[in-house]
């Protein structure tokens, strides 16, 4: 066959054609040699190559709302919210804790002072080093932090008390003054009591010194026998 555009062109076999060229058959089944890189758009406009249907959204019209549908949705949402509101359980009333009260016991901070204790890692908390709080089940390492803990909000809540102090009435204040007066009268302290206490302390100190001297003598006798070596003065 002869190309009407290029009469002198003699194409090779299709499997030997270069990559940018391909055969496209037209309506009259006449082969035309075209370039796939350049003329694909041209052939599409000429309807030589069938085009696929375009996919997209047509948003060129004015949107219309279905009022009945959205009114029904609003009614369903209101009904659901009302059901959820009634289905929720009623909130529990707030816990009413007792007001803060003073301790009726003495805090022990110095009973184990200066003592040695063997502690193992598998020992219970009550037997470990430090100050153990049985209410909160915790161990505090020093006395200052222990006092802060037992005076803190967490410990008082565990005891069932709040941090608020009850306002005292006039009668309670008068009763408190009477108790303090009685306590002061029973524990009256005079200058004579002070002298007796100082004398007693001196006697106890002298007794301890005498016991230490006797222990040193016994130790010397046990080392040198019944005849201790007398010091020689030069």
TrEMBL record:
InterPro entries: Matrin/U1-like-C_Znf_C2H2, Snu23, Znf_C2H2_sf, Znf_C2H2_type. It comes from the Eukaryota. Residues 128-162 form the U1-type domain. GO terms for cellular component: spliceosomal complex; U4/U6 x U5 tri-snRNP complex. SUPFAM superfamilies: beta-beta-alpha zinc fingers. Residues 210-219 have a biased composition (Basic residues). Residues 195-209 have a biased composition (Basic and acidic residues). This is U1-type domain-containing protein. It comes from Colocasia esculenta.
């Amino acid at each position: 066959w002869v190309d009407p555009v290029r009469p002198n062109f003699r194409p090779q076999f299709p499997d030997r054609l270069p990559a940018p060229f391909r055969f496209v058959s037209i309506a009259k089944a006449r082969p035309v040699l075209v370039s796939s890189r350049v003329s694909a758009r041209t052939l599409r406009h000429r309807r030589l190559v069938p085009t696929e249907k375009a996919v997209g959204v047509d948003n060129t019209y004015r949107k219309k709302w279905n009022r009945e549908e959205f009114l029904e949705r609003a009614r369903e949402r209101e009904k659901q919210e009302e059901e959820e509101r009634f289905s929720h359980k009623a909130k529990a009333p707030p816990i009413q804790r007792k007001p803060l009260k003073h301790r009726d016991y003495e805090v022990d901070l110095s009973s184990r002072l200066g003592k040695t204790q063997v502690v193992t890692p598998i020992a219970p908390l009550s037997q470990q080093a430090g100050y153990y709080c049985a209410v909160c089940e915790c161990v505090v390492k020093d006395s200052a932090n222990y006092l802060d803990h037992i005076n803190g909000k967490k410990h008082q809540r565990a005891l069932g008390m709040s941090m608020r102090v009850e306002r005292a009435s006039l009668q309670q204040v008068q009763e408190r003054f009477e108790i303090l007066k009685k306590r002061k009268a029973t524990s009256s302290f005079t200058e004579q009591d002070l002298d007796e206490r100082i004398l007693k302390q001196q006697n106890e100190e002298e007794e301890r010194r005498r016991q230490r001297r006797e222990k040193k003598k016994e130790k010397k006798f046990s080392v040198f026998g019944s005849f201790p070596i007398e010091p020689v003065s030069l």
